[in-house]
Structures are given as structure tokens and as C-alpha cells.
């Protein structure tokens, strides 16, 4: 009998990662969309690195960072009694870093596609930057927001390398579906591997289908 | 209102210094005229607070909006300057009424919306989506929205340039009535001499970042002697004893009788000067 | 003319013989944690024969999958018996797999404040938060560690401290980086060049866990393409010289 806990854990991780990245991705993208300076360029590079780096590299650095032998890991352990390696919290941090570009990039290009006069108009109407963001900018980049949310969710479901490095395969904490597939294959248990893999393919395909379908709808509305 | 502003600007043909110094009577309608790249839009954006000058001072009804010496720079939010953008900058996520409501204070009377919709002839379109409106209708929404905050200063950046002639005349009429209704100080950027003379009482003529002239438009646009006018030569026709030339003058093609002698050196597109010397002119209201 | 023909024949035969010499080359699939011992095995073997040995190093599972897909490997040196047996079942081998060595389980820590003692009761104390083992479903060192913990009647109490590495090298990485306080790994790892002086370790009683058998096998490809060379290398794996090398690198017989 197949264990569904890894699938549920994967969905939970993807869900929380998406929420966290949505909340921090919008201000980052907003800041990056306003003008240029060296700090923004550096931030853009950092935000794009997870795109080009193998996830194992991120996982490896996180493993070093989380280690209680290192200063960051020791700080967490001594002051908060937290150990991030082999914990769901650690995985969440890893996923947030790993999926960062998939949230920031679509939102950033959304902001860049808006004419700057929208923001100026709102300012001349007495609205604060925050009011402008909530009432003017975000409602007008809905397709980009949706793309960011869906890509982040789907990408986190596919996460493997980071979890492999810092997960430790603990049931219901860090044993996500992609690892379960790998384990079943390693155990030469191709039947179970097939079931997990098929479920992942099904979930990812459904999500992407919904994205393209609803983005087309949104675009049609805009043309009208 | 008084302003003196200096800023280094970058145009397509290199940097130049904007340096303007001007005093405008409260409640007047002023036009800003000049070749493109002269700094008209930049000047307008500085007045609205979107662009910060290197050095400068802006005083509006005794209120200091900007004083770089004393590090005062009131944000666009607090300047209460209505701005009408060339691309209208309407919020596509809101309908006509919502665009206007968004601009109003929460506790402002809802009557103002009705009044503004009435004034801009938009009452029937209040629940329409922005994307469903024509250019002229969008421009009226932009105007109503800019007025919803009851600004002391209304800034219009070529608001009518993308609108066809008939609609433009219509909107110019609305602008005039709004201006007198609210007794607002207004500055409009325009290339259209008809529009400038029709709407505004004074024109700032800006060239290379400097104010070249600041005068009554009908004085400003008289070039040389009063009975001469500039035009562009188009063609010449000779039908027996009735020979005439087609010329482009004031945005219209008109026929003027002339002799073959007058046009012998002219080619299509040449700039010419027409003088009303011999025949008397007749004027009649249309 | 006669001389030209002679020269041609001399050239032809010298070329031909160099060809035969080049054919005395075999490719061995080697499990990753055998790689240090393998380098010495290879050197010793090449000293006594004119057969050259190339290695393809990888996880036993990956190598097995490659062999199933028809990878041109002559001999397979696995880190366990499961994969060679699976290949045998799939008729990818020439003959039965044979155990060449046994792995030794050690308990290892890189934390200075942890004292290792052979009775292992310290594992249930509060200052030990995580214990790394290899995934017992996949890796023999993992199932050996679980058996050992059960024997010491510790498994139930420390079950929730266990973190699983996908293989023995990942498990070692958890311990070496200090993310896991202690962990069970292979003696071959703690003796290796890179880990030699890191932290401290104790060898565990081999009677407390089932033997960690490692087997090797001549593959079907080897039997078809290089039967002589494959056979002679396979036999070398069970020679006295080879057994000395296993011992030096942390394996027993």
C-alpha cells in the first residue's frame, strides 16, 4: 500500500512557500521596478541565481549554514533552540530561496509593463505608495501575479536537490514526494515509484493547465 | 503662483539646462508652447512634484511647495495639483465612476461625482469600463478625475493631441467652462495655436529650456506685420482667367487667387508668406 | 619491390599487435564508497598484468540501472549484494555474484562535547538531537545500523532523532557538517583521505548487526567482449593481495 504522506507534505510545503514568497516577492519586485542602482542590480543577481545554480549547490550551502558548528547555526541553536537541518522549517527556507526567481520575475515584469503615469496619477490624486500599490498597481498585473503564484507552487513541488541535501528523509516532516520517488527507484520498487511520479505529473499538469487557461481568459477581458 | 526652476535635462540631441522663472496670476489659464524637447513636459512634471529640479522654488497661493535652499519639497500627494496625462493614465481596473471616486477623499460629498460627471458629459457612461471608451471619453474621465480632488492647480500635458478635430473643439469648450466654474489656475502644454488662442490668456513660449516669450497668445503668434500670414504652398491651377493657388494655412487648405508670375519659383511644400494688401477681407461668425 | 612488401608487412603486424594490446582494456563499474580502495586495487592489478582497467564510479543503484540499459561494463563491484543479485535475476551477469568483502559500521561524531561509548546508551541523552543513518530501505549500512540499535534496545527511544541520508556518503556529509550530532557510517569513510582527521569514531561490534556484504560480478557484456581479461580481474578481487587492500581501507573478510 502506498503512503500518501509525502504527497500531502509536498503540497503543504508548496502552499506555504507560495504564500511566503507572495508576501515578500511583491515588495522586492516593486523595489526593483523603481529605477536602477548598484544594490538593485546585486539584488537582481541574487534573485536570479537559483535559476542557474544546481539546487544541490543551494542545498549544500544551506547544509553548511544550518550546521550548529557554523556561526549562524550555533546562533539559532543557542538563542532560539532551533535546528533547521532535517526540519520542515529548514525545508521551507530552502524552498523559499530556491523558488524566489519564479515569484519575483513575473511580478517584476508585470510592474515594468505598467506605464509610469499610472503611479504618478495616483500620487497626484493624493494616494500613498502603499494605497497605489494595493488599489492601482496590483489589480492591473493580475496575470503576472497568477503566473508567479502558479510557477512558484509548481516549481516547489518539483524540488529535489535542496531537500535531498538538507531534508534527512523524516516522515511527515521532510520526506517529500520527489524524494519518495527517488527512494522507491533506489529500492528497485518501480511500482510505487510509478504511482508517486504519476501523481506528481498529474498535479503539475493540472496546475499549469489552470494557469494558461485563466491567463488566456484574463487577456481576453483586457482586449475587450 | 510663482516658480523659478533649474535642472540639467537630457534631450535626444544632448544635455541642456532648463532655467525658468515665472509668475502666474491666480485663476488664469496659461499655455506652454514650444518645439518638442524644449522642456515643456519636464517643467509640468516639476510643478506636479514628479521631477525634482536641481535648484528651485515653487510658491502656490503663498504656500511653499518647493524650496531647495531650505530643503522643502512637498510630495505630489500633498501638492493638490491635478495632472492630466497625455496617455490619460486611467486605472483600467476601475470603471468611470470608480476612477473619479478613487481620487476623492473618503468623506467628500458624493454630489461632487455627479457634478463632475455632468460637467464632462459622462453621466451615461458612469458604469462603463475604461477599455470600452473612446479616446475623447477617456480624456474627459481623466479631466474629471484630476478635478475630483479640487486642486488649486490643474496641469494638462497635451491632453487633446490624440483626439480628432470635432471632439477636440468639444473638449476645449468643456475645459473653458470647467476653468471658469472652479476658478482654477491651469497650465496646458499645447502645440496647437488655435487651441492656445482659444483657451488661454497668456502663453509661455519655451525654447531650449528658457522662456523666450511670455505674452498674450494673439500678440505672440503675430509674426511680423499684422496683415501677413505664413502658409505652405501646395499647387497652382490655371482655368482661363481664374488662376489660383492651393495653400495650407492654419491647418486648412485654402485657395487664393494669384498670378502665374507669383508661383513660378514655387514647389510643393515651400513655405510662403501671404499678404492681404489689395483685396479687403470679410469676417463673419460661423 | 620485395623490400616494400616486407616493410608493409612489418608495419601491418606492428599495428595489428598494438591493436590487440589496446583491446586488453576492461571497464569496471565501481560503487562510490569503494573508490579509494579501488585505486590501489587497480594499480596492483595493472602491475602484474598487461590489462588496463578503467573505472566508472557511481552509486550502486545508478550503475545497476545503467547496466540494465546495456552500458558497456565488464565487471561490477557493488557496495552491497542487492544490486548484483538484481542483475543476476535480470540475466545481465555471467555467473553468480560473489562476496569480496564486508563493510564495518562505525559511530562517528565531529562534535567535541560528545563522548562516544560502545554501550550506546548515551544516544538517548538530551544533548543528542539528531542521529544520522543511511536510509535502511535502500542502503545496507542503514539497515545494519537499525539492527544494531534494536539489539541495544534503543531503536524505539531514539527513533524520532533519526535523520536519513540517501546513501552512505550523504549520511557522512550530515555528520561531517555537524548538522547531525552523531551518525552511523562506514569505516571506509572515516579512514578516507578527506575525512581521516575529522572528529572521532568508534568501531561497533560486528556481532551486533548482520554482516554488510559487498559483492562483485562479471557482467554479460564482459563475458561477451573481454572474457579473459574480465575473468582475470574478477579473480584478482579475491586474491590475498586484494584482501590486504580491503583491510587497509576499512573492510573485513
Strand order of the largest sheet of chain C: 2-1-3-10-4-11
Mean pLDDT of chain A: 89
Helical segment count of chain C: 11
Beta-strand portion of chain C reads 15-25%
CA radius of gyration of chain A is: 20 Å
User: Which class of secondary structure composition applies to the elements of chain C?
Assistant: alpha/beta
Rg estimate of chain C, integer Å? 22 Å
Quickly give the structural class of chain A. Answer: mainly alpha
Helix content range of chain A: over 70%
> What percentage of the residues of chain A does DSSP assign to strands (E)?
under 5%
Structure, described:
The complex is a heterotrimer of chains A (224), B (286) and C (253). Chain A is an all-alpha fold. Chain A has helices at 5-33, 38-52, 55-66, 71-80, 88-113, 116-124, 129-137, 142-157, 161-166, 177-186, 190-223. Chain A is globular and about 65 Å long. The model of chain A has no long low-confidence stretch (mean pLDDT 89). Chain B contains nine helices and 15 strands. In chain B, the strands form three sheets. Chain B has a six-stranded mixed beta sheet with strand order 7-8-9-3-10-11, sandwiched between helices. A five-stranded antiparallel beta sheet of chain B has the order 2-1-4-5-6, covered by helices on one side. Chain C is α/β, with parallel strands linked by helices and 253 residues long. Chain C has helices at residues 2-23, 35-48, 60-68, 82-89, 140-151, 155-158, 168-176, 187-190, 220-225, 227-236, 240-248; strands spanning 25-31, 52-58, 75-77, 98-103, 105-109, 131-134, 162-165, 182-186, 200-203, 212-218, 251-252. In chain C, helix 3 runs parallel beside helix 4 (82-89). Chain C is elongated and about 60 Å long. Chains A and B meet through helix 6 of A and helix 2 and strand 7 of B.
How do you describe this structure in short?
Chain A has 224 residues and is mainly alpha-helical. Helix content of chain A is 79%, strand content 0%. Helix content of chain B is 27%, strand content 33%.
Keywords:
heterotrimer, A: 224 residues, mainly alpha, 11 helices, 79% helix, 0% strand, globular, B: 286 residues, alpha/beta, six-stranded mixed sheet, 9 helices, 27% helix, 33% strand
Amino acid at each position: 500500500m502506498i503512503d500518501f504522506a509525502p504527497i500531502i507534505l509536498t503540497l503543504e510545503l508548496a502552499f506555504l512557500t507560495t504564500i511566503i514568497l507572495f508576501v515578500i516577492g511583491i515588495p522586492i519586485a516593486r523595489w526593483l521596478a523603481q529605477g536602477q542602482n548598484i544594490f538593485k542590480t546585486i539584488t537582481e543577481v541574487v534573485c536570479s541565481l537559483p535559476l542557474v545554480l544546481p539546487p544541490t549547490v543551494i542545498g549544500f550551502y544551506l547544509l553548511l549554514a544550518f550546521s550548529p558548528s557554523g556561526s549562524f547555526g550555533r546562533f539559532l541553536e543557542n538563542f532560539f533552540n532551533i535546528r533547521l537541518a532535517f526540519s520542515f522549517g529548514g525545508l521551507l527556507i530552502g524552498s523559499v530561496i530556491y523558488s524566489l526567481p519564479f515569484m519575483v520575475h513575473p511580478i517584476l515584469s508585470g510592474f515594468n509593463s505598467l506605464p509610469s503615469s499610472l503611479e504618478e496619477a495616483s500620487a497626484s490624486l493624493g494616494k500613498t505608495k502603499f494605497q497605489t500599490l494595493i488599489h492601482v498597481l496590483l489589480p492591473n498585473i493580475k496575470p503576472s501575479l497568477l503566473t508567479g503564484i502558479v510557477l512558484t507552487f509548481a516549481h516547489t513541488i518539483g524540488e529535489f536537490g535542496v531537500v535531498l541535501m538538507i531534508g534527512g528523509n523524516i516522515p511527515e516532516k521532510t520526506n517529500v514526494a520527489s524524494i519518495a520517488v527517488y527512494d522507491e527507484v533506489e529500492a528497485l520498487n518501480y511500482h510505487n515509484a510509478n504511482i508517486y511520479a504519476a501523481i506528481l505529473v498529474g498535479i503539475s499538469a493540472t496546475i499549469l493547465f489552470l494557469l494558461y487557461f485563466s491567463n488566456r481568459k484574463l487577456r481576453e477581458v483586457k482586449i475587450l | 503662483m510663482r516658480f523659478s526652476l533649474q535642472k540639467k535635462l537630457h534631450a535626444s540631441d544632448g544635455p541642456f539646462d532648463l532655467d525658468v522663472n515665472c509668475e502666474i496670476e491666480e485663476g488664469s489659464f496659461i499655455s506652454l508652447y514650444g518645439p518638442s524637447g524644449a522642456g515643456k513636459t519636464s517643467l509640468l512634471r516639476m510643478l506636479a512634484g514628479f521631477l525634482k529640479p536641481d535648484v528651485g522654488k515653487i510658491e502656490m497661493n503663498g504656500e511653499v511647495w518647493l524650496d531647495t535652499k531650505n530643503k522643502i519639497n512637498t510630495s505630489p500627494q500633498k501638492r493638490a495639483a491635478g495632472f492630466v496625462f497625455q496617455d490619460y493614465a486611467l486605472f483600467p481596473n476601475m470603471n468611470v465612476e470608480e476612477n473619479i471616486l478613487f481620487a476623492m477623499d473618503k468623506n467628500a460629498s458624493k454630489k461632487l461625482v455627479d457634478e463632475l460627471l455632468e460637467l464632462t458629459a459622462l453621466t451615461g457612461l458612469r458604469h462603463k469600463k475604461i477599455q470600452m471608451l473612446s479616446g475623447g471619453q477617456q480624456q474627459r474621465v481623466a479631466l474629471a478625475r484630476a478635478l475630483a480632488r479640487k486642486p488649486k492647480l490643474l496641469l494638462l500635458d497635451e491632453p487633446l493631441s490624440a483626439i480628432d478635430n470635432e471632439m477636440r473643439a468639444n473638449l476645449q469648450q468643456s475645459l473653458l467652462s470647467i476653468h471658469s466654474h472652479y476658478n482654477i489656475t491651469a497650465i496646458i502644454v499645447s502645440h496647437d495655436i488655435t487651441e492656445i488662442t482659444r483657451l488661454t490668456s497668456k502663453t509661455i513660449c519655451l525654447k531650449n529650456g528658457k522662456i523666450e516669450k511670455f505674452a498674450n497668445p494673439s500678440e505672440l503668434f503675430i509674426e511680423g506685420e499684422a496683415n501677413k500670414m505664413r502658409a505652405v504652398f501646395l499647387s497652382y491651377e490655371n482655368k482661363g482667367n481664374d488662376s489660383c493657388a492651393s495653400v495650407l494655412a492654419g491647418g486648412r487648405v485654402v485657395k487664393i487667387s494669384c498670378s502665374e508670375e507669383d508661383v513660378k519659383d514655387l514647389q510643393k511644400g515651400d513655405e510662403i508668406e501671404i499678404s492681404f494688401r489689395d483685396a479687403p477681407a470679410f469676417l463673419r461668425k460661423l | 619491390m620485395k623490400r616494400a612488401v616486407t616493410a608493409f608487412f612489418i608495419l601491418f603486424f606492428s599495428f595489428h599487435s598494438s591493436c590487440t594490446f589496446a583491446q586488453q582494456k576492461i571497464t569496471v563499474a565501481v560503487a562510490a564508497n569503494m573508490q579509494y580502495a579501488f585505486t590501489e586495487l587497480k594499480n596492483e592489478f595493472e602491475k602484474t598484468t598487461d590489462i588496463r582497467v578503467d573505472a566508472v564510479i557511481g552509486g550502486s543503484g545508478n550503475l545497476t540501472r545503467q547496466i540494465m540499459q546495456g552500458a558497456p561494463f565488464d565487471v561490477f563491484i557493488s557496495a552491497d549484494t542487492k544490486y548484483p543479485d538484481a542483475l543476476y535475476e535480470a540475466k545481465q551477469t555471467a555467473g553468480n555474484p560473489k562476496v569480496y568483502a564486508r563493510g564495518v559500521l562505525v559511530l562517528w561524531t565531529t562534535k567535541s562535547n560528545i563522548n562516544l561509548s560502545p554501550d550506546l546508551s548515551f544516544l538517548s541523552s538530551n544533548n543528542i538531537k539528531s542521529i544520522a543513518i543511511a536510509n535502511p530501505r535502500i542502503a545496507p549500512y542503514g539497515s545494519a545500523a537499525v539492527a544494531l540499535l534494536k539489539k541495544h534496545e534503543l531503536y524505539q527511544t531514539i527513533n524520532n532523532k533519526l535523520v536519513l541520508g540517501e546513501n552512505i556518503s550523504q549520511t557522512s556529509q550530515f555528520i561531517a557538517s555537524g548538522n547531525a550530532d552523531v551518525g552511523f557510517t562506514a569505516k571506509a569513510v572515516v579512514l578516507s583521505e578527506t575525512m581521516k582527521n575529522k572528529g572521532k569514531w568508534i568501531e561497533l561490534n560486528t556481532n551486533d548487526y548482520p554482516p554488510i556484504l559487498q559483492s562483485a560480478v562479471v557482467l554479460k557484456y564482459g563475458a561477451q567482449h573481454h572474457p579473459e581479461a574480465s575473468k582475470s580481474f574478477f579473480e584478482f578481487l579475491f586474491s590475498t593481495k586484494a584482501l590486504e587492500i580491503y583491510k587497509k581501507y576499512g573492510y573485513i573478510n
